[in-house]
Design the sequence.
């Protein structure tokens, strides 16, 4: 199968729309016939990453590269960056403000969830420049 | 448990995808924190929540859940219901509070799958 590349702009202003990219990827993977387990892992990992771009980084860009054997999700933003990655990876650690928590996010489980559902997770981040997550899932 | 039974036990109103009531639920999950829901994939079929923003529907969708029950009399706005309808997710609304709604389902045999401790 020829690699398939999907790209999306994730709007940082619109919390309601967060998850549209992940939803679209999920539908595409279903059409392509990937297994429900793989599709769910991709969907959850990407969705958590997409939400993070909206609540922590004012939006960004999502790129998904699909081959028969792997699905690679690249989430790039120009947000504030992550000061301490080890801390950010801890379950329950969150800098999300109260209003985000009232919307159901900010439990500090996003990055741990992404790690849990992916086969590889790489975080490139620089304070004041932005963050890029590269999430790899073997099919 | 059939979703129609869930609806009946919770004295719930069906907000969309009534045809889904014929479906079966294996287990359920109650939470207002979406990341907590996303953390445990266990074939839950129902999400009980008091949160009415579109992300409850997105969360259910990512988790392949069939039904959302809005508790404590909360009613989502129309776009949220449409989003659920587009994704074939049955939406119910009950006036019971979270604790009671979960308790009623549990007491009637809808258990959480497997060991439920983290
Ligand atoms: N894209 C991002 N840009 C800047 N900071 C981020 C980003 N993603 C995560 N973080 C930081 O890492 C923390 C932990 O993230 P996460 O585990 O998803 O929990 P939550 O989103 O619930 O706060 C966040 O609270 C935030 O401080
Ligand atoms: Mg998060």
Sequence:
């Amino acid at each position: 199968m020829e690699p398939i590349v999907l790209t999306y702009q994730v709007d940082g202003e619109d919390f309601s729309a967060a998850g549209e990219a992940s939803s679209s990827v999920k539908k595409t993977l279903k059409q392509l016939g990937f297994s429900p387990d793989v599709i769910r892992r991709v969907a959850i990992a990407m969705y958590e990453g997409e939400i993070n771009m909206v609540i922590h980084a004012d939006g960004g860009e999502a790129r998904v590269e699909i081959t028969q054997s792997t699905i690679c999700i690249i989430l790039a933003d120009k947000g504030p960056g992550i000061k301490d990655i080890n801390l950010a990876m801890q379950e329950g650690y969150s800098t999300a403000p109260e209003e985000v928590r009232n919307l159901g996010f900010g439990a500090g489980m996003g990055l741990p969830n992404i790690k849990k559902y992916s086969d590889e997770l790489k975080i490139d981040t620089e304070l004041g420049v932005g963050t890029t997550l590269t999430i790899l899932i073997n099919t | 448990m059939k979703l129609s039974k869930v609806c009946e036990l919770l004295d719930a109103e069906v907000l969309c995808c009534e045809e889904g009531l014929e479906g079966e639920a294996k287990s359920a999950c109650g939470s207002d924190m979406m990341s907590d829901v996303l953390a445990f994939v266990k074939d839950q079929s129902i999400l009980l929540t008091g949160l009415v923003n579109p992300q409850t529907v997105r969360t259910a969708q990512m988790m392949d859940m069939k039904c959302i029950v809005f508790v404590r009399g909360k009613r989502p706005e129309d776009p949220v219901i449409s989003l659920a309808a587009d994704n074939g997710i049955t939406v119910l609304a009950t006036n019971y509070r979270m604790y009671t709604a979960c308790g009623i389902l549990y007491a009637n045999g809808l258990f959480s799958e497997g060991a439920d401790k983290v």
Notes: The longest helix of chain B spans residues 98-107. Residues A 52-53, 56-57, 77, 79-82, 88, 93-96, 105-112, 131; B 35 surround adenosine-5'-diphosphate (ligand 1) (CB under 6 Å). Chain B touches chain A at residues 32-36, 38-39, 41, 49, 51, 53-56, 58-59, 61-64, 79 (CB under 8 Å). Residues 3-107 of chain B form a domain with the Udp-n-acetylmuramoylalanyl-d-glutamate--2,6- Diaminopimelate Ligase; Chain: A, domain 1 fold (CATH 3.40.1390.20).
